[in-house]
From TrEMBL:
Protein name: Carbohydrate ABC transporter permease
Superkingdom: Bacteria
Gene3D superfamilies in alphabetical order: MetI-like
Lineage of the species this protein comes from: Bacteria, Pseudomonadati, Pseudomonadota, Alphaproteobacteria, Hyphomicrobiales
Bilayer topology: Multi-pass membrane protein
Transmembrane regions: 12-34, 78-99, 111-130, 142-165, 186-211, 246-265
Length: 279
């Protein structure tokens, strides 16, 4: 009886902590959304109040869609994010398969080298990265952002996917080899379908920092033609006057792709996280 009561208390505390964390995480998003649909006076007078008939105003959205080239910013962010995620998943999965499947001299050293990439922020190499992009003529191109984000995401992808790929049955892979499948066929046809939850987890964890990043777009691609959503939102922030309606509207529009991606891959994401927890 005491064990059951202790377990119930512990479960209640865990759920209470999770609910508190969820409220803390969702509150800024909620505050941004409701204030993006109010007039300027209502934003400063009562920012916690939801829009009413008197305070409802979409001037921020009309400003964003009218003054700023938001469609181009959104397109640039979409291209950079999708291409970067595709490259991270492809190269990260291939590297994870090699490290988990084959035993060779330097296997552990290579895994440790990639793990260091998780611990050391890529921003520490900003000067060297900028010099390299200038030397290769990639400044103010989306390619520069794709290369940086791919290098940034591969270490985490290898770390997560290698653990999942070690759980794939060796008998299944050996059966494929007996049937005449090449290593590439085994990788693409047998292994990848079994690690889809982990792939979805990596995709979400890779997308969020890429989509929200301001540092590298500001340094590597600040031109009007290559601005991303986050950098493009800065045009409404001035030294003396800030158009908060437009800023909040731009941020609200920038949140939508992340929410859509989560709802699409939420089942795979939760499955991947819980599977990793069980391991």
């Amino acid at each position: 009886m005491s064990k059951a009561r202790h377990s119930l208390t512990r479960t209640g505390l865990v759920h209470l902590a999770l609910i508190g964390y969820a409220v803390i995480s969702i509150f800024p998003v909620f505050l941004t959304l409701i204030n993006s649909m109010k007039d300027r006076n209502a934003i400063f007078r009562n920012p916690m109040q939801v829009p009413t008939f008197e305070t409802f105003d979409l001037v921020g959205y009309t400003t964003v869609l009218g003054q700023g080239d938001f469609a181009t910013y959104f397109q640039n962010s979409f291209i950079v994010t999708v291409v970067s995620i595709a490259l991270v998943l492809l190269f990260g999965a291939m590297a994870a398969f090699a490290l988990s499947e084959y035993r060779f001299r330097g296997n552990m050293l290579m895994g440790l080298y990639l793990a260091i990439g998780i611990m050391i922020p890529i921003r520490l190499g900003t000067v060297a990265i900028l010099q390299g992009m200038v030397a290769t003529g990639l400044v103010n191109t989306l390619t520069a952002l794709v290369l940086v984000y791919t290098a940034q995401g591969i270490p985490l992808a290898v770390f997560i996917l290698s653990e999942f790929m070690r759980t794939v049955s060796d008998d299944l892979k050996n059966a494929g080899r007996i049937d005449g499948l090449s290593e590439y066929s085994i990788f693409f046809r047998l292994v990848l379908p079994l690690v889809r939850p982990a792939m979805a987890t990596v995709a979400v964890f890779t997308m969020i920092p890429i989509w929200n990043d301001l540092w590298f777009p500001l340094i590597l691609a600040p031109s009007e033609a290559t601005k991303t959503v986050t950098l493009g939102s800065q045009i409404f922030i001035g030294q003396f006057v800030t158009n908060w309606n437009a800023v909040l509207a731009a941020l609200s529009l920038a949140i939508l792709p992340v929410l859509v991606l989560y709802f699409i891959f939420s089942r795979q994401l939760i499955r991947g996280i819980t599977s990793g927890a069980v391991k």
